[in-house]
Design goal:
GO terms for molecular function: pyridoxal phosphate binding; transaminase activity. The protein is of the alpha/beta class. The chain folds into 2 domains: about 100 residues, Aspartate Aminotransferase, domain 1, CATH 3.90.1150.10; about 230 residues, Type I PLP-dependent aspartate aminotransferase-like (Major domain) (Aspartate Aminotransferase, domain 2, 3-Layer(aba) Sandwich). It contains 12 helices and 12 strands. α2 runs parallel beside α9, α3 crosses α8 and α10 runs parallel beside α12. The chain is globular, with a radius of gyration of 21 Å. The two termini are about 20 Å apart. The relative contact order is 0.20.
């Protein structure tokens, strides 16, 4: 890597003694209307409505689908876990995803007794759709397609995705994991919910979409996610869950968040702006990150990833090390990002940035 002049960065802003940029959390609090809704309806002595009618109805209106096609869970992880358990129910059934990926996929496959089919991403971090198609076997029951991909931030464009779905057999359920969809500003990326509805209308019932309130909406601590699927599959997934899994405050916050989408978009635009700044600065220093469409950046450092993560931690910055592959760094407040950039600079130059 080439070196660059020493930059000037803001002083660090630490939480509990460390700058946390490893979990893709939204920096700062959720919008004021969401906080107020939770505080004004703190009925923590009551169980939530097991039907979750307010949230089901709000999501159905936003997604232009029926409430029977909606699945809720304690984060999108819960919905994904149950989907794998329901779809991969027979011995030998397999679930496929691109790797590196969200580590919980392996846990969910193991819990379901499913075979894990891991297909490496391409050198630029993009999902290798052709390799995934080639890896499909008679036992493949599900493909999880994360778009934008975590941890690389790469995206699959609409025309590529439609072509992929046309070639996947009807017996394979394709789950579009859109946890980071709100951070994507590439107009060529298709809205998964719109695509799913179109596929269902055309008689193709093997497309499912999962999303979360943990990322763009800033409700990670409340644990609420959702998905849409054909009504029969959605019912099976709901039946496989723990009754009243989503807490009452989580439901109240999610309904309020859907009403405060303009405030959410303002937060997202700030993240997108900071992401562009961090990418520009990393490239100026001498790194080669690819474009990212999530609330994070990806550094493909290969065998240096562990040492780089340790270097950052020594500087008080926590990043996610994916061993021997790279490092994922969440976009935080500008001062958080400057703290990381200072550490990235000293890794290259060995000199302290001022």
């Amino acid at each position: 890597m080439t070196t660059a002049p020493e930059p000037r960065y803001a002083r660090e802003r630490r939480i509990g003694g460390i700058t946390r940029l490893a979990a893709n959390e939204l920096p700062g609090d959720p919008p004021a209307p969401v906080r107020a809704a939770v505080l004004n309806n703190a009925r923590i002595n009551r169980y939530p409505d097991p039907a979750y009618a307010p949230l089901h109805n709000a999501l159905a209106e936003q997604l232009r689908t029926s409430s029977e096609q909606i699945m809720l869970g304690a984060g999108s992880s819960s919905v994904l876990q149950r989907l794998i358990r329901v779809v991969c129910a027979r011995p030998g059934d397999a679930v496929m995803w691109a790797t590196p990926a969200f580590e919980a996929f392996s846990i969910f496959a193991r819990q379901a007794g499913a075979v894990a089919q891991r297909v490496p991403t391409q050198a630029d971090g993009s999902v290798d759709l052709e390799a995934m198609l080639a890896a499909v076997t008679a036992h493949t029951r599900m493909i999880i397609l994360v778009n934008p991909h975590n941890p690389t931030g790469a995206v699959v464009h609409g025309d590529e995705l439609r072509g992929f779905l046309d070639r996947v057999g009807e017996g394979v359920v394709v789950v579009l994991d859109e946890a980071y969809r709100d951070f994507c500003d590439d107009p060529r990326v298709t809205d998964g919910a719109e695509l799913a509805r179109a596929r269902w209308s055309a008689g193709h019932h093997n497309v499912v979409v999962v999303r979360t309130f943990s990322k763009a909406y800033g409700l990670a601590g409340l644990r609420v996610g959702y998905g849409i699927a054909p009504a029969g599959l959605a019912r099976q997934v709901r039946d496989a869950g723990v009754p009243r899994e989503v807490g009452i405050q989580a439901e109240i916050a999610a309904v309020a968040a859907l009403k405060a989408r303009s405030a959410m978009r303002e937060n997202v635009e700030r993240i997108i702006g900071e992401r562009a700044r961090v990418l520009t600065e990393l490239r100026r220093i001498g790194y080669a990150p690819g474009d990212s469409h999530g609330n994070f950046v990806w550094l493909p450092l290969a065998e240096d990833s562990g040492r780089f993560a340790e270097h950052c931690f020594a500087d008080g910055v926590l990043v996610l090390d994916i061993a021997e592959r790279g490092v994922r760094v969440s976009i935080g407040h500008p001062t958080d990002n400057d703290c990381f950039l200072r550490s990235a600079h000293t890794w290259v130059t060995g000199r302290v940035a001022v």
